[in-house]
Amino acid sequence: MDLSKKVRLRVGTNKIKFTMKILIMGPPGAGKGTIAEMLQKDLGVMHLSSGDILREAVKENNPLGLEAKAYMEKGVLVPDSIIIKLMKEKLNEDNFVLDGFPRNLAQVKQLEDEDIKVDAVLNLKVSEKTIVSRISGRRICTKCGKIYHLQNMSPKKDAICDNCGNKLYQREDDKPDTIKERLKTYKEQTEELIKYYSDKGILNNIDADGNKEAIYAKITGLQWIKKRKSKLRARS
Questions:
Q1: Number of domain units in the chain
Q2: Catalytic residue among 21, 32, 134, 139
Q3: pLDDT of 54-72, one tens digit each?
């Protein structure tokens, strides 16, 4: 779908300003964070993920961070209202990519009430087989936290960290049965959201079964992305 007309134009006193406000959707293991980082580097857009925002706020010990920390220490989900307030504080520019949040229609409505709206949605579609392979192959060092993958980035010595020599382990939620449950939950949560963005005409379904370079090439091949890149080159 050509969404070039969906990229908003804001008229200032001297020039027209092109904006790019993107949401990346996709199940666990789809590569949302990786694609968001590639867009950030390539297009100069701000990358916002709810997890990163929460960790930063807690580290800074600001009022919202302390409020979020209280929930996190109890092992419960941080309320959407706090996450959205934190996002609003960070969104001080016209070009950004949201990574995995909002995840449901209620969250979208809350964001839109705060005048945080997206111009386009990239929906990364990945088969269950690929996701199970990507996530179940992940191993983490028990001491330094370095992440490995049995197929894509395996340690030199089986089940031993290259960095510190400690053992690697597999998280419970990285095991196949748990992954399948997570995928089921994701589908139930996002079905309504996908329809909402599709009805608005801003949804792009991206086949994300391949490697990151192939996936990114599909995204940058979209007409509205090409248009944005050409505008950036014209300014430089």
A1: 2
A2: 32
A3: 888 988 998 999 999 999 8
